[in-house]
Amino acid sequence: MTDPQLVLAERVQQALGTAFGPEYATEDPLIRPSQFADYQANVALSLAKRLRRAPREVAQALLEALDTTDITAEISGPGFLNLTLGDDWIAGQAVRQLRDERLGVPRSAEPKTVVIDYSAPNAAKEMHVGHLRTTIVGDTLARTHEHVGNRVIRQNHLGDWGTPFGMLIEHLLDIGEEEALRRLAAGDGNAYYQEARLKFDTDPAFEERSRRRVPLLQGGDPETLRLWHEFIEYTKRYFNHVYTLLGVTLTDDDIAGESMYNPMLADVCEELTHAGVAEVSEGALCVFPPGFTGRDDMPLPLIIRKSDGGYGYATTDLAAIRYRIRDLKADRILYVVGATQSLHFQMVFESARVAGWLHDDVHAEHVQIGSVLGSDGKMFKTRSGKSIKLTELLEEGVVRAEAVIADRGYDPAVRRQIARQVGMGAVKYADLSVSHDSEYVFDFDRMLALTGNTGPYLQYATARIRSIFRTGSYDPADATGPIKLGHPAERALALQLLRFGSVVEAVAELSEPHRLCNYLFDLAQAFTSFYEGCPVLKAEDEEVRQSRLALSALTLRVLLQGLHLLGIEVPERM
Ligand code: ARG
């Protein structure tokens, strides 16, 4: 364990046990950064009342029981315990981290099977910035879980089934298969959908044809299925194009769309009925999960078979959760989906619990994704008010990034490559750096800024460290220390570096990528202070220079590894 905060917490807990008895050894020691020391423990203040002793007295007892190897401790103020780690300890840990290919990130002793449901665009509608965000957040969670040693199963729950396909197939026949498929692969799915919708709403004959098409699809009519397959196939090409642009790890093997569950839906209804979990209400088969009431306090139903016999989104999700638990053997299931679907997932989870599928050994969580807004504070659309085509948006990001680096004198091909990395990095970082459930305003200027908590700032920080090594003709791989800490900025940098492992663990544990972003941002800033206060190449003393090179190399590696977990590519120069 290298995280200084955790090391101190453990020490103070030991002292709590020694001073006040074992029942206190699990008390939160309330370790916080301090102005006067590295950290302070505030637990004496919170315990004083319970122990019926003055806070300073409690702090004194703690201090006496504390193992102070590598630490200095003193009482301050009303009863804070100020804690400072020894320079040798910090330097020693930093060298260990430098020599550890995992950079201090622990590998899970008991790997878990983590199913991650993310991206999940609708083939029948549009892929919008909301899907972009679930794609990006989900991908970071997948990468992080893999990195900490869990077994990750990605599930792209495509919206590829249901009644809209009746009209979409009829529209395809109307405009001609070839033309339709070309447009779908090009990402014109939105316009295509809207045209079909308009005809459906205004042309009764088309509406009639579309309705008749639905049972043909569900009943497995070969020609209808063939057309549906083509439709999905070409739409998938577009999704894959977006994933490639973004450097997202999803592949066709991860697709487990709604259609996949079609053969299981009848059985799901039967099992739930048999178990007494589902009942017929007003002609529809419903589950009434406990704890959900609507207006007038009436129990809220999760409809799993409509009165016309059709199945819906909820039925599919119940089939999916059963499959993920029984067949995929999930220990944990993350649903990285828009926050607006919160009630749906609560009801699905509760129903699965009542059905006995979601038992205590499995955790299902809705990782709620907040909306992406336009500058007008409404859901993000293009300027013309039409919904946006994602590839165009991403291309715009690349073009704008190119303008940001235009004056660097790169030849066009190199510039284009860097611009792609910077543009995509900017978009992804914007999605990841705010807490996943908060809304934020999509703003290219802010995302692409080279200062502040942005992707390009962090990319630039790595390029700057690389240029130090280039300038001095040193190879970062050779910078192995030893590390000696003299200047306060060196200490601060090293302390920050040591926290990396526990931050990565927290991202996996809590499904909160923004913690890693904040950490990397703080790290880049700590490096800037270090670089301003401590000459590296110009250090007079050879040992000092080697130590500073080692700190720089470690910072570079942690930044690169962190950005890799965020799915952000890093140009060598910027
Ligand atoms: N396709 C859905 C949508 O766009 C998201 C699906 C999320 N996953 C799930 N298991 N329901 O809203």
Total number of domains: 3
Strand tally is: 13
Percent range for helical residues?
40-55%
Query: Which of globular, elongated, flat, extended, rod-shaped describes the shape?
Result: globular
CATH architecture of the largest domain: 3-Layer(aba) Sandwich
The CATH class of the largest domain, by name, is Alpha Beta
Pfam family, one: tRNA-synt_1d
Keywords: Aminoacyl-tRNA synthetase, ATP-binding, Cytoplasm, Ligase, Nucleotide-binding, Protein biosynthesis
EC number: 6.1.1.19
Protein name: Arginine--tRNA ligase
Explain this structure.
This protein is an alpha/beta fold and about 575 residues long. It folds into three domains: about 80 residues, Arginyl tRNA synthetase N-terminal domain (Gyrase A, domain 2), CATH 3.30.1360; about 210 residues, Orthogonal Bundle (Isoleucyl-tRNA Synthetase, Domain 1), CATH 1.10.730.10; about 260 residues, HUPs (Rossmann fold), CATH 3.40.50.620. Strands 1-2-4-3 form a four-stranded antiparallel beta sheet. Strands 6-5-10-11 form a four-stranded parallel beta sheet. It starts with a helix and ends in a 9-residue tail after the last helix. The model has no long low-confidence stretch (mean pLDDT about 95).
Summary, kept brief:
The protein has 574 residues and is α/β, with parallel strands linked by helices.
Ordered list of secondary-structure elements with their pairings:
Elements: H1 4-20, E1 31-33, E2 39-41, H2 43-51, H3 55-65, E3 71-76, E4 80-85, H4 87-99, E5 113-117, H5 129-147, E6 151-155, H6 164-175, H7 177-185, H8 189-202, H9 204-218, H10 222-246, H11 265-274, E7 278-281, E8 284-287, E9 302-305, H12 313-326, E10 332-338, H13 342-354, E11 363-369, E12 372-373, H14 390-404, H15 412-433, E13 440-441, H16 444-447, H17 455-471, H18 488-498, H19 500-510, H20 514-533, H21 542-565
Parallel strand pairs: 5-6, 5-10, 10-11, 12-13
Antiparallel strand pairs: 1-2, 2-4, 3-4, 7-8, 8-9
Helix pairs in contact: 1-3, 2-3, 4-18, 4-21, 6-7, 6-8, 6-9, 7-10, 8-9, 12-13, 14-15, 17-21, 18-20, 18-21, 19-20, 20-21
